[in-house]
Amino acid sequence: MPLLEVDEVVVRFGGVTAVNGATFSAEERRITGLIGPNGAGKTTCFNVITGLQRPTQGTVRFDGRNVTRTPVHRRSHRGMARTFQRLEAFGSLTVRENVRVALDIAGGLRGVLRSQTAQIDHLLERVGIAGYADERADSIPTGTARLLELARCLAGDPRLLLLDEPSSGLDEHETDAFGELLLALAAEGRAIVMVEHDMDLVMTVCDEIHVLDFGEIICSGSPGQVRSDERVQRAYLGQSDEENTRDDLAPFEATTTIPAIGVG
Ligand SMILES: Nc1ncnc2c1ncn2[C@@H]1O[C@H](COP(=O)(O)OP(=O)(O)OP(=O)(O)O)[C@@H](O)[C@H]1O
């Protein structure tokens, strides 16, 4: 049974249908990609999964239980963790203090009063930002701040990790290391769902990919299946030049086939 099941979810904002009957799942030990053009409904799906957005219709199940109406903090307590596109760390605290706060909160839920320095160091090393431990969070590069968000998520030892554009701000070398980290986190038994615009990363690490377009899942499958799907290629190429300004879409402008984006 998948750890996460999203079933026929619809989200309407007035006249806008942001998500339209989306059905997909995520399993432990696997990395699931959720991709699609700007405004396709990816972040809204994350909001529904984590409880920030009540769906107009549909169901979310986590570990077999219907959590569609479960508040955010209870879903978190049951093992969901999420990073945001917008950075959420406390800017005036150091990187180390940010991780300590996250560990204290997670530990508090388990009755542990004070986090151990070794735990903090371990998390910082794990995500590769130990060198920034004593810097203020608002002074570190964006990519590093995203890794700090991940460290804060891992403080709660989540079973399901939802990552919203986690690699943005990382250079090529850092992105490669990040991909390795994701694979290691999944191998430990976690389910990872990732909204990501770096197609090289998505195609390299994801076991399964769901493609959203105008709120609908238009394709689900392996990276190979998604790359060769005509509807996916049309969805990306269909954007006007004005809309099509994001770096992530640039590779699709040069070619009509996804395999030519430098993967595999
Ligand atoms: N609170 C809201 N009120 C009204 N419309 C919204 C709201 N949130 C999202 N939308 C609309 O819903 C659609 C889906 O938005 P969403 O942010 O989920 O897309 P996305 O795929 O995450 O986009 P991006 O890749 O640009 O982050 C868009 O048309 C957006 O304008």
* CATH third-tier fold name of the largest domain: Rossmann fold
Note the run of SSEs as H and E: EEEHEEHEHHHEHEHEEHHH
**If helices are DSSP runs of H or I spanning 4 or more residues, what is the number of helices?**
10
CATH domain class name of the largest domain = Alpha Beta
Number of strands: 10
**Estimated structural class:** alpha/beta
Query: What quaternary form is this?
Result: single chain
What share of residues are in beta strands?
15-25%
Total tally of structural domains: 2
List cofactors, ions and other ligands.
adenosine-5'-triphosphate
Main traits of this protein?
36% helix; 10 helices; Rossmann fold; disordered C terminus; 2 domains; nucleotide-binding; six-stranded mixed beta sheet; ATP-binding; 264 residues; globular; ATP binding; alpha/beta; binds adenosine-5'-triphosphate
